[in-house]
């Protein structure tokens, strides 16, 4: 088993990468003129937002287990074609 700090670090890296992908997809979606492509991108962005929220919750919980006296606020969701 991996220590919680290692798992937290890996989840943070995954979160960062998903946010980058989310931003690129949102930019592409704004540039893309095809309605079908835009709907597909929006569906993917919604899924990425759900994953980001899940990861943020896990990182928050793991952080609380590692340092129970210092419970930081969980990060906010972001990044969609609506932004």
Summed up:
By secondary structure, the chain is an all-alpha fold.
Structural notes for this entry:
There is one protein chain. The chain is mostly helical and 83 residues long. It has a domain at 4-33 and 47-66. 72% of the residues lie in helices and 0% in strands. It contains two helices and no strands. Helix 1 packs antiparallel against helix 2. The model has no long low-confidence stretch (mean pLDDT 76).
Work out the radius of gyration: 15 Å
Helix content bin: over 70%
Strand content is: under 5%
The major pleated sheet works out as:
none
**Class of secondary structure makeup:** mainly alpha
Query: Which shape, going by the Cα principal axes?
Result: elongated
Low-confidence stretches: none
Gap between N and C termini: 39 Å
Mean pLDDT: 76
Tally of helical runs: 2
What is the ordering of alpha helices and beta strands?
Answer: HH
Keywords, please?
83 residues, mainly alpha
């Amino acid at each position: 088993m991996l220590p919680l700090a290692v798992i937290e670090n890996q989840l943070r890296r995954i979160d960062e990468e998903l946010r980058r992908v989310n931003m690129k997809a949102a930019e592409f979606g704004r540039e893309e003129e095809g309605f079908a492509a835009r709907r597909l991108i929006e569906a993917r962005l919604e899924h990425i937002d759900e994953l980001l929220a899940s990861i943020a919750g896990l990182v928050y919980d793991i952080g609380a287990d590692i340092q129970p006296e210092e419970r930081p606020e969980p990060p906010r969701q972001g990044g969609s074609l609506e932004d």
